[in-house]
Amino acid sequence: MKRFAILLVFLLAGLTVTAQSPRYQQFKEYRNEADTLRMKQMLDGWGEKDPEFYAAWVNYCSVMAEETQDPTWLEMGVSWAQNGREAWPDDELLLHKLSDALFDNEQFQDALAVLEDIERRGLGEIITWYHLSVIYGAKGDFGQSRRYLEKMIQDGEEDDQDYARDMLEEYDRIEHRADSLALHPDHAAIKAISQTAAFQDLIDRFAACDTTLTRDEIATIYYGSSYLKNYNLVPSQGEAIRTLAEEGKIEEARAALKAKLQDYPVSLFVLFSLYNLSEYEAEAEVYLWKIRRLLSTIDNTGRANSTERPFQVICVNDEYHALNYILGMQEFKSQAVVEGPMDKMDFLNEYSLEMTVYFYLTPPYWERLNSLFGGND
């Protein structure tokens, strides 16, 4: 575990400020030296529990976590910070200590709420900007992360500035790469191509895992296929196949899926099902080759948290594949249809941070939906 080493400077505004006593200053020296024996001796002899007592315990837990590599110390640090806040709800030092403890324990969503409170109160400092830049980066919100990195450059010491500049350069590389790989499907042109013999040739090349296929050709294959078949129906049609697999009739399930793949060659549901049921590594690699290229196509159409650049999919089921395998969804929260037509998806990512992404369901989906309801949205 690697903490961001930096000198904390507490601002004298907003909350009740407890002046740091010589005793607490001495304790911090022991903390910086990682002298856990003297830290514990001071804690045992502290006497009356004041805000600095709780802050000192948070520091002690942090050092012990680093020394022992035992994460339960980080949980204890959070508990000490929370208990201190309950006893001294208006103390500034404990507010900062709570944000530190939550961040160190990777409770990033809770830490974000505390950090935003610190900022609203005008109490932000270098460690606040660092924590906020990391959390927003983990949420995929590079714009907000950049904002706090720039604050670090403005307010920080040389090491802080160097770190922030390195991160900004990394974001530039990431965003440049994303822009260079961005796909902007022309759905009218794709629809026209899908009606030609040339399109079947593309499908045959994809089925054969032709490595000479370009990114634009694979995008044409993926989005064009939806003009020929309703891919939204495939998962519900797969219920009988799932039953076969659950009953241990694997060969029958594989045969049924392979037959389905003939009709729906870019169905992520079918491809993932075949991959999971593959008996041989070489066969699994074929399905994985196709899965990766289809997910890459979806990934390159969108940006996280963007209504201007939503991820483009051909059916609802593919939204969930994108959430799981592109965006690292840990827990699904909610879905809503918004203007566009788009789906708004709220979920927790791999860092347990709340995220929102948008999916544009391409024209064939909405054309079929409108036809079912007499042209009404």
What do these coordinates show?
By secondary structure, the chain is of the alpha+beta class. The chain folds into two domains: 22-179, Alpha Horseshoe (Serine Threonine Protein Phosphatase 5, Tetratricopeptide repeat); 187-372, no CATH class. It has helices spanning 22-32, 36-44, 51-68, 72-87, 92-104, 108-120, 126-138, 142-155, 158-181, 187-194, 197-207, 215-225, 234-237, 239-246, 250-263, 268-277, 281-299, 316-325, 363-372, and strands spanning 311-313, 331-338, 342-348, 354-361. α14 (239-246) packs antiparallel against α15.
First-last Cα distance: 52 Å
Output the structural class.
alpha+beta
What is the number of independent domains?
Answer: 2
Strand order of the largest sheet: 1-4-3-2
Helical amount: 55-70%
Q: Which segments are poorly predicted (pLDDT under 50) over 5 or more consecutive residues?
A: 1-17
| Discrete helix count | 19
Q: Averaged pLDDT, please? A: 91
Strand content: 5-15%
Rg, Å, rounded: 27 Å
Largest sheet: 4 strands, mixed
SSE string, helices as H and strands as E: HHHHHHHHHHHHHHHHHEHEEEH
Number of separate strands: 4
Shape, per Cα inertia axes: elongated
